[in-house]
Amino acid sequence: MSDVLAIFGSSDSDADVLAEIAHLHPDRVTVLIEDGPADLVGEDSEEGDALRTRLAGLMTAIERDTRATVVGLAGDRSQLRGWRFDRAVAPQLPLAA
Length: 97
What we know:
The chain is α/β, with parallel strands linked by helices. Helices cover about 35% and strands about 20% of the residues. It has one domain (about 5-90). It has helices at about 15-25, 45-65; strands at about 5-10, 30-35, 70-75, 85-90. The protein starts with a strand and ends in an 8-residue tail after the last strand.
């Protein structure tokens, strides 16, 4: 059984992170979105709606493309203290020229 932490930043890197997750064939995935305030998911605002929509799309894509179960969502790394993952997948940082 493999557990993956999927770290998403800005939405323009979502496809790359999703492709890397699919390549790993995990059994379970925990999603962390580091783009924006951690409590935005619960807000009744346009930004909160947009984040919930993005999150739903990411969860659907992960489950569809990998058959893995999304077992958790985190808005901040501190929520993951004590959790163990086999791998972490994050957007690639741009290389300096």
